[in-house]
Design goal:
six-stranded parallel β-sheet, 10 helices, Rossmann fold, alpha/beta, three-stranded parallel β-sheet, 40% helix, single chain, 11 strands, 299 residues
């Protein structure tokens, strides 16, 4: 029996609807409007498209959107001065610097400059430490999105065996921590994991995030498992010259014959990232104002 398809696009739309409802209540009951500031350095075309999408969705849910575009040769001191200004601005509850940045800027230093309470990308060492210690912080958007999809699909994950392929600070490590909080037994696998296929085949929950197109085959998947595909690789389209096709880390067609549920690429995890960025901004706003956090939109 073919797996059910986890529709991330529809789920993300539902998340944005819940956020919009909460934003309306914040405005009506407390006179507060959550605000997201996005900083774009340079003119990377992909980043410009992504920032435009963030702006559009931010406005659609009723939040304030503050865009700051800086030239590619901006001095570090000037970028840091802008971040300091945003840190101090009470109308700004979330700050995101779009990566990649030009080579003369250190991404780690940029992240470290952002107030952890406004670090809605969840990338700072402070937020990573809070997650690891089980305290309240802001969680990296893509892992948070995957967690929401898994909660919706599975309900309780207590006692399940979970395997995350990938150990990046951006995704693999926080995803593992989130699954531990759900009382899963977690293995973080990577390029040097011995017998990787066998390790994956034990998983009730398999999360692939390595950026290697269709690496995960059907015999890597435990029958009845839930498979979350985070990878995105763009290849020349085999049937449309001049066009490209997106592939995930999972060989979708064959794995869908084994799994119970699976995310497609595109249309699975991807739409959840911006939705969770907005959720984090709302959460940061509520925490800053001492108000109740939105139910179901945090880790």
């Amino acid at each position: 029996m073919a797996a059910s398809v986890i529709d991330g696009k529809a789920f993300a739309a539902d998340v944005r609807s819940k956020i919009a409802d909460h934003v309306v209540r914040l405005k009506e009951e407390h006179g507060v409007t959550p605000g997201l500031a996005v900083v774009l350095v340079g003119e990377d075309p992909a980043s410009e498209v992504y920032v435009a999408a963030k702006h559009k969705q931010t406005v659609e849910v009723g939040m304030a959107s503050f865009e700051h575009k800086l030239p590619a040769d901006v001095p570090e001191a000037e970028l840091f001065a802008l971040i300091d200004k945003l840190n101090a601005d009470p109308d700004v509850h979330g700050i995101l610097c779009q990566f990649p940045v030009p080579d003369h800027l250190d991404e780690r230093a940029v992240v470290a400059r952002i107030d952890p309470a406004k670090d809605v990308d969840g990338l700072s060492v402070v937020n990573a430490g809070l997650l690891a210690s089980g305290e309240k912080g802001l969680v990296s958007c893509t892992p948070l999105g995957c967690l929401m999809l898994l909660r919706d699909q599975l309900g309780s994950m207590s006692g399940m065996e979970a395997v995350v392929i990938g150990r990046s600070n951006l995704f693999g490590k926080p995803m593992g921590q989130l699954l531990l909080k759900e009382n899963c037994t977690v293995t973080i696998a990577h390029s040097r994991t011995k017998d990787l296929a066998e390790v994956c085949a034990r998983a009730d929950i398999l999360v692939a995030a390595v950026g290697r197109a269709e690496m995960v085959k059907a015999d890597w998947v435990k029958p009845g498992a839930t498979v979350i595909d985070v990878g995105i690789t763009r290849i020349p389209h085999p049937e449309k010259p001049g066009k490209t096709k997106l592939l995930g880390d999972v060989a979708y067609a064959e794995c869908a014959e084994v799994a119970k549920a699976i995310t497609p690429v595109p249309g699975g995890v991807g739409p959840m990232t911006i939705a969770c960025l907005l959720a984090n901004t709302l959460t940061a706003c509520c925490r800053a104002k001492g108000l109740d956090e939105p139910a179901g939109l945090t880790a």
